[in-house]
Design a protein that fits this description.
3 helices, mainly alpha
């Protein structure tokens, strides 16, 4: 689509998927003022980030390999 090499496409996919790490806790706090922002940050970074690094990079690689 963007005529990127596979490595660049994988990094772009990973960065796009990771955009919520910062946005989600702030949106959570805006929607629910009594929300515990520390818990939202823990959930965002402590759960989503390891999943993204351990599993998602391999999934992105497989999908991008099929697309190229």
């Amino acid at each position: 689509m963007l005529d990127l090499p596979m490595g660049s496409a994988i990094i772009l996919a990973n960065l796009t998927a990771s955009a919520s790490y910062i946005a989600a806790p702030v949106a959570f706090k805006a929607a629910i003022p009594s929300a515990n922002i520390g818990l939202a940050m823990l959930a965002s970074l402590g759960l989503t980030f390891p999943f993204n690094v351990i599993l998602s990079i391999g999934i992105y690689h497989s999908v991008i390999e099929l697309m190229l």
